[in-house]
Structures are given as C-alpha cells and as structure tokens.
Design a protein that fits this description.
Layout: H1 8-15, H2 20-40, H3 46-71
Helix pairs in contact: 1-3, 2-3
Length: about 70
C-alpha cells in the first residue's frame, strides 16, 4: 500500500499522534536507504542491495500499519 491509499486526514492524525516521531524516523530511514541505492547501487553487492530493499519493505509495512489505524477512524 502506498501513501496515496490513505486519506490526508488519516496521515495528518497519525503524524500528530503518539506515532508521529516514529513516522518521521521511518521517513528519514527510508529516504536515506533509497538515496544510497540510487547513488551507490551499482557499487553495492547484490546481498547488500537485497538487505536494503528488504528493510525498505519493512519500513513501508510498519508505516502502513500505523496509518491504517487512523484510516479506520476517518
């Protein structure tokens, strides 16, 4: 699921809840990993790239789980 699958209200409520700090951490780590994959991807081993992509998937899942809680409240 992507961010576009959640209402702006649900995202706003989640960011302004007790989960806000974690959502910011998730965003920062995701952006950092994506940037590294773009800039250094060809120099990294397949194993490292796979680990990084798996971590991005974990972060997305965690983010979606948090946002889904607030989407149900809308």
């Amino acid at each position: 699921m992507g961010l576009s699958n959640f209402s702006k209200r649900a995202i706003w409520m989640a960011v302004n809840s007790e989960h806000g700090d974690r959502l910011v951490q998730i965003s920062r780590e995701h952006a950092s990993l994506a940037k590294r994959l773009i800039e250094e991807g060809k120099q990294l081993s397949e194993a490292v790239v796979s680990e990084m992509k798996a971590r991005i998937d974990q972060l997305r899942t965690e983010r979606d789980h948090i946002l889904a809680q607030f989407e149900r409240r809308c």
